[in-house]
Each structure stands twice: as C-alpha cells, then as structure tokens.
Amino acid sequence: MFLKFAYLNLFRNKRRTLSTGLAICIGFVGLNLLGAYIFRVKKALDTTSVYSALNGHVKVYKKDSLDQFSLQPQKFIFHPDEAGKVEKVLETLKEHIDYVGKNLNGTGLLSNGTVSHPVMFSSFEPEVYARSMSQPEINLWAKDWVLPSQFESVKVFEKNNEVVSITPKIADIMSVRYPLAQNESLQLAGRTLDGDLNAVNVDLGAEHTTGMQFLEDTLILVPFKKVQELFGTEGNESFSIYLNKNVDIKTFKNLLDRRLFDAGIEADTYLYYDEKINSVYLGTMGFLYVMGAFFVFLIGTAVSLTIVNSLTMGIIERTREIGTLLAVGFQRRQVSRLFIIENLLVGLASIAVGIVLSYLIAGFVNNLNIRFMPPGVSGKIQFRLVWNVVIAASVGIFVLILTFGASLVVMKTKEKAKLIDLINDAGA
Amino acid sequence: MKHLFLLLVLFSAAANADLATELLEASDQGRGGIKDGIEWSGKVQTFENGNETNREFLIKAKDHDALVEAVAPAKNKGEIFLFNDRQMWFFKPSLKKPVSISARQKLSGQAANGDIASTHYARDYAATVEKTEVIDGVKHHVLFLKAKATNLTYDQIRYWVSEKSKLATKAEFLTLQGVTFKRGFLEYENKLSVNGKVIPFISKLTIVDAKYENNKSILTYSNPKVVNHPVSLFNYNNMTR
Amino acid sequence: MDNVVEINNVFKSYQLGSTEVYAIRGLSLNIRRGEFTALIGASGSGKTTLLNLVGSLDVADKGEILIENVSLKNLNENQKSFLRNEKIGFIFQSFNLVPVLNVFENVEVPLTIRKGLKDSERKARVLAALKDVGLEDFAQHRPDQLSGGQRQRVAIARALVTEPVLILADEPTANLDSNTAHHIIDLMLELNRKRNTTFFFCTHDEKLMSRVQRIIKIKDGVLVD
Predict the structure, then answer these.
(1) Which one of A5, A325, A327 has the shortest CB-CB distance to C57?
(2) A97 closest CA partner among A255, A268, A267, A261
(3) Interface predicted TM-score (ipTM)
(4) Number of Cβ pairs closer than 8 Å across A and B?
C-alpha cells in the first residue's frame, strides 16, 4: 500500500515529478559518463605503466637505488650474484608471477655519425617485450597509446638483437629514412658504470611512442644486453615483476618485501603507480580525481537542491493530507517514509532511464571518434567513454543515497510541525 | 674636454682588450696552442669519492686540430678523440661510425673532454683584464674570459696570467651564472723547442672540484715535441680506417 | 453505561499576538458509550478546540482527558497515533480525502498501518464500511468524481473502517446543502444504532438538532445549560 500510495503520488504533480526526475537523471548521466571517462583513462594508464612501459606490476631496486644509482651505479646495481639471490626469492613466489624482466636504464647520445642527440634509454628484453605486447589489456585499453608498429616490433626484436626502438620525433631529429631498417647503423654513446665514455653500434628498425610529449624526443628503447655492453656491466638496475591476473598487487608487494628481507637482500619495491617511479600516473590520476570530485560536488549539490526544493513544495501542497494521515493514526516517521519512498521511486526511475541514456551517449560519442590531445600527451587520443556496470551501479547508489539523504533532511525539518496546524492548513 | 675624456676611455678599453688577447695568445702556446704539429703524452689521474683511476693518452695536435689516442688502461686502448676545430668525435675500433660528442662532457673525474687537447682560448674566448694580482711575488693579470660559442668546454673562465712568463698559472671555471665550479692550477716544467726557440710547456694541470676539494683530476704532460703531422691524420673520414 | 470520554476540568489557551486567548476554561464532560452527542455553539465558542483535544490532535494546558479510561496526558506521540488508529475515527468538515487514491483506497488508508491484519480481512472491512455508507458501487471512483455528500460518506466510511469506539466529527455537514446534510446525519444516526458507535460532533446547524440524542452547548469555552 505504501509503495502504491507513493507511486500514485508521483502523478499528482507530473511536471514537478518530471523536473525532479530529469535533474536526477541528468545528474546520474553526468556522473556516470564522468566515471566512464576517468575509468577509461585509469585503465589506459594502468596498462601502459605495467606493460607498454615495461614496469611490471611491482619493481624491485636495490635499497636507495632510485636516488643513488646515477651517482654510484657500481654500488646500486644488482651484480649477477645479487641478481641471482633476488631471482631465487622470486622463484618462491612463482605461483603469483606471470613473468619477470630485468632493466638497465640510463642516458647518453644517439649519433648518426653527423649529429648526436641526447637520449634517455629504457632497456627491454625481447621476450619480455613480446609477452607484454601480447597482453589483451593493451588492445583493450591502450590502443591509442601504442603505435601499430609496436606490435610488429616484437618480431623485429626477436630477429635482430641490435635493434633499438626510436620515436617518430627522434626519427625526425636524426633525419632517418623510412623504412627504418634500411638506415645504416647508429651509435649509442654513454658512460660506463666506471665513468668512461663508451659507445656501441645499434640498428634501426622499430618505432614506438611514449604517449608523453616531454619524453617523445628523448626516450628510446634499447635491448637490455646492448645497455649492459654500453655500461660495461653484467648487472641490472631493477626487476619488473608481471603478476598473474587476479593477484592482489599490494598483498604481493608485502609478501615480496618480507621474503627479500628474510633472504637478507636490501631492496626497495615499488608498485607500478608509485609516485617515485611513475609520477605521470599519479599526476594524471590526481588531476582527474580532483576534477571528478569537483564535478561530483557540483552535480550532487544540484541534484540535492532540486530534491529538497521539489519535496518542500510537495510537502507545502500536501500539508493537510499529512495532517489527515497523522489523525487517522500514521506515525510521523511513517509519513516521512512515504515521502522518501516517493523520491526514491523517482530516483530509481530516473537512474533506469539514465543507465539507458548514458549507455546510448557513450556509444554515440565513441562512434563519433572524437580525437583530442590532452596536455602533456603526445599525439591525439580518442575521447572514449567506457560504460561500465560497476561505475553505473556505484553512481546509481550514490545518487540514491543523495536522494534519500536530501529527502530525509527535508522530512526531519518538517516533522516538527504541530499536528493541529497541519490539519487546519488551508493550502490544500 | 669632454670628447677627449671619452676618447681616452675608449682608447684604454681597446688597449685593455689588446693586452688581454696578447696575454691569452702567449699563454695558449704554453698549452699546446701553436701552429706547428706537436705531440705529447698525457696522463689523467683522477681522485673521486675516495677512488683513484688512471688513464693515459697520446695527444697529437696541429693548429686547431687534435687527435687523442687512449693508451692505457688496456680496455680503453684504441679509443680515439678527434678535435676538428671546435667539433669533437669519439671513436673506438668496434664502432661503425664515430660519435659526435661535446667538449664539455666529462672525460674522467674533473677533466672535461676539452681539457685533454691543446688550448685555443685566444680563439674561443673574448678576454678582458679584470685586475692585477701578485702571487708568490709575481705580478699576474687576472683575465675574464667569455665564451664566443656555445659548444666550448666552459662558458666563463677567470684566468691568472703571469706578466713575466706570459703563462697561465691559475684558473677558475665558472658556470653561465658566474658560479665557480672547478679550479685549475698549472705548472710549466717541460720545455719545447719551436723553430729553434725553446719555450716552456705545461707539465701539470690540476683540476679541483670547487665544492669537494678531494675530488680532483691531475693531468700530467710529458715528452712534448714538435712533429710535422700530416693533415690527413685529423680527417674525420680517416678515423674509421 | 460506561464513559468513552471523560473530560475533567480542562483548560486550553492560544497565544494571539501578545494576548492569551482562552478557548476552553475548566470544562468537564463525560460521553457515554453509544451516545450520539452534538456540541453546539457559535463560531469561536471553543467547539473545534474541544474536539481536537478529545481526538488527541491537540494538547490541553491543564486538566485531564481520558479515552476509555486511558489518560491522554500519559501518552507519547506514537502512543497517541496508535490510540487514534485503534479507538477514534475522524470526520472533517472538508472531507480531507487523498485525491490520488480511489474511494476504496481512501477508506483503506487507516488499516494499512494496522499490524497483523490479513489482506482479505482488510478488504472485507473496507467493503463493509463502503456498504454501510452506500458507496459499494463507487469503490473505484476518485474523490474528484464524487459529489460533496458522497465524499463525506467516504470520509465516514474511513472513520468507521477501524471500528472505533468514538467518532469525532467537526462540522461534518458545513460544506453540504441541507438535503445532503440531512442524509449524512441520518447515516451517522443509523451507524450509531447499528454499530453502537459513539458519535461526538460539533455543528452550528440548528436544523439538525432535533435528530440528536444529546446536545451540549458551549459558549466562551465553558458549557452552558
């Protein structure tokens, strides 16, 4: 009866019900699409951080290596015997681990015999690169941030272990010709871990994009063995651990920390989104979360005020009816419940419409293939809204809580009115 | 009267610059900056963070070109640094092409690539005389050197040149902002016979970190002699042969 | 006969601006079970105030009111709600029906909050009440499809459906033409006889007085003979 009563009341002032519903619906659609956008960016960042950037889910460095490696590389590198110990520890955790990669990054000059260009190089092992690029997540979330040729690079790297991957921007700076493989070899110069100048020959043949403007003229991918040769070392700076799906990365990190400690290895471990190794991730997500919170606040306030307003109007119009209900034995909280149910029904209906609407809008927007260049990102990426049932449900619950809260606040303030004043009200 | 004063000022400024250039040209000679072919053995002894390393080179120079060959340690043997005017190249036998490098980059410890070869400060820097100073009873002109190009070893140098010997004995290497980051101390125990005239030649250059004095590189020069090098020796295209 | 209502020396005043107006002044009265009592008096004499106090819609300043020997003074808001639902039916001057509910649903409203009442029993009670007021054929009509008299019958049925011991009616015929007003009074009388329900209503319609078993006159908040 309560439900039916509440339902029937919705048709009492159709225009008001519609406007309240519309506000809730628009609020829901707005929050849902905002959530869809943030979700998509987060997924893309997760994927590129873990797989494209070859960070893995967890990275292991020697203790204090992040600050000290460039100053005292010989001290902060994992020498082969030390690396072996870490590998032994990782072996004990193999049920969680998909695969492990070694890294050795640095800076130097890329030279074509005429021009030298300063570069940062990130090392890769061909088999780790191949496995990372074959992850379905890359196709699903980070297609825009990976060049199509990067998938082909897998074969190039397997065939020729001298091949480095450069960005289109560096190709332009170094005036190399396409196809890349037809160029004569380049030289990569750098300082050995002992501080001596050294240089090695590298071949062209692969291209990548960093996704970040400030890295696009700087970052090249160099085979791990080549970097070892350049640096005159057998060691590695860090390990990238790629975990199996459904492994909780924080739990794994804690477990790894404990095992490394037990094995007497002084090491620092970082999750792929740790500010210390991935400031871009934190910066981008921080910005998006702040922006999201701002919109949630705006939309939430607008929706709440609309509900408060329409409910207050409804109560004023129905004062005598409230009095009558109280006179025939309704308790005040039962009357409140009736009004709250009414608003929750409007909310539910609006959310149902909102779900369909946001799904259609997301599909429509994605079909339009709008491309834009976010600040700091190199190249245009698609403005994609990934409709997700978890986000829709979360936003739906949030909007319902908002509806409930706003209704409750109004009813609590109105409950104080005297019964006799309610019945005698001439407004109805 | 007013015009006369202005004339005097201009004249003295020009005279100052002339003196500075003259002193620089003379001091460059003592550091290998001569037209004739020349060669010497160089040793770079580096003390850094408590570690000592040693490297040895054979330096061949002629006019504005220089070829520096690494002699020791064995792992660096065969490495070549080629200076063509202000351009600089690095090469080793395993490379298919030389690598263009900067004179500014660190060679070893405090020594920059540019420090190893002959010096052409008179060509590369605009000099003015700041003041005079007496060091160990010898009057020195203190020159202030500003780089004429961006690819030089240093942006600015404060350079103490003895009035008597016309040789530089002390240097402060400054950043673009004017902060001293390295100090140099020069000695001239070697003798070099050029066109029948014996001139003093640099024997030791000590470069010390301005902040951490224990971090230093000592460049020792020995066996300087005039050799008529063929021009082809300094040809970039001949490096890979 | 036992008393359904006992009113003992009740006072009630209202604040009108800065002056305090006494609506009821030390009034005492008993209403026996099954009585059909009219409270008459001029406008502003305190009729409605007294009815509201008896119906626990308002609270007396002093004195005591008992419904079936239960003092209203000792009840909290929820207990009063329960008492109104169980023991008292209300008929208002302007019917106070819920416009979005049909006749059946309007009558059903007080029973919807009754605990332990089966659906079938509830429906049977609503139909019986509608039959008692002669509106069984109008169950699906909405209030705006009914005449004034019919609406007041719906209100009477709503008051009856809980089978209260007391029905309080505030000027139940004031908004009706005299013919309809007579019909309503007839209906109330009939229900009083048939169900032995106690009726306590106020009116200023002198024409209705002849039909009423007991008439109480009120003037300036006190009873007059």
Answers:
(1) A327
(2) A255
(3) 0.92
(4) 57
Q: Do A189 and B92 touch (CB under 8 A)?
A: no
The identity of residue A239, as a single letter, is F
**Structure confidence by residue, pLDDT tens digits, A404-418:** 888 888 888 877 788
Distance CA B236, CA B182 (A): 31
Please identify among residues 75-94 of chain B the ones whose CB lies closer than 8 Å to any CB of chain A. Answer: 76, 79, 90, 92, 94
What would the two tokens of residue A119 be?
Answer: 């570069």
Q: How far apart are CA A421 and CA C127, in angstroms?
A: 32
pLDDT at res. B107: 64
Nearest to A187 among B79, B97, B113 (CB): B97
Tokens of A247: 């492994």
The shortest C-alpha distance from B104 to chain A (Å) reads 13
Determine the pLDDT at residue A428. Answer: 37
- Measure in Å the smallest separation between the Cα of C186 and chain A Cα atoms: 23
Q: Domains of chain C: which residue ranges?
A: 35-59+76-224
Q: Considering the domain boundaries, does residue B94 fall inside one? A: no
Contact between A419 and A378 under an 8 Å Cβ cutoff? The reply is no
* Concatenated DSSP letters of C5-63: EEEEEEEEEEEETTEEEEEEEEEEEEEETT-EEEEE--TTSSHHHHHHHHTTSS--SEE
Asked if residue C154 lies in contact with residue C97, where contact means CB atoms within 8 angstroms, the answer is yes
Assess if residue B23 is contained within a domain. Answer: yes
Show the domain range for B143.
2-58+102-229
Nearest by CB to C110, from A9, A320, A328: name it. A328
The chains found to touch A (3+ Cβ pairs under 8 angstroms) are B, C
DSSP state string for A86-140: HHHHHHHTTTTEEEEEEE--EEEEEE-SS-EEEEEEEEE-HHHHHHHHT-HHHHH
Please report whether residue B88 resides in a domain: no
Distances B214 to B50, B174, B175, B184 between C-alpha atoms, Å: 8, 19, 20, 14
Question: With an 8 Å Cβ cutoff, are A419 and C90 in contact?
Answer: no
Q: CA A98 to CA B213: how far, in whole Å? A: 50
Residue A428 to chain C, least CA–CA distance (Å): 9
State the number of CA atoms in the 13 A half-sphere of A265 facing the CB: 26
Which DSSP symbol is given to A325?
Answer: H
Domain tally for chain B? Answer: 1
Q: Which residues of A touch B76 (CB under 8 A)?
A: 196
The residue with greater pLDDT, C46 or A386, is C46
The torsion of the CA quartet B22, B28, B30, B31, rounded to 10 degrees, works out to 170
CB contacts, 8 Å: A8 with chain C: 100-101
Strand partners, A60: A239, A269
Phi, psi of A218 (to 5 degrees): -125, -40
The closest alpha carbon to C191, from C61, C91, C104, belongs to: C91
Q: What is the pLDDT of residues B87-141, one digit of tens each?
A: 888 898 888 888 888 766 666 666 776 777 777 888 888 888 888 889 888 898 9
**B226: phi then psi, degrees, rounded to nearest 5:** -85, 125
In a domain, B70, yes or no: no
The pLDDT tens digits of the residues spanning C105-133 come to: 999 999 998 888 899 999 999 999 999 88
Which homologous superfamily is C35-59+76-224 in? Answer: P-loop containing nucleotide triphosphate hydrolases (3.40.50.300)
Q: Which of C211, C194, C195 is nearest to C203 (CA)?
A: C211
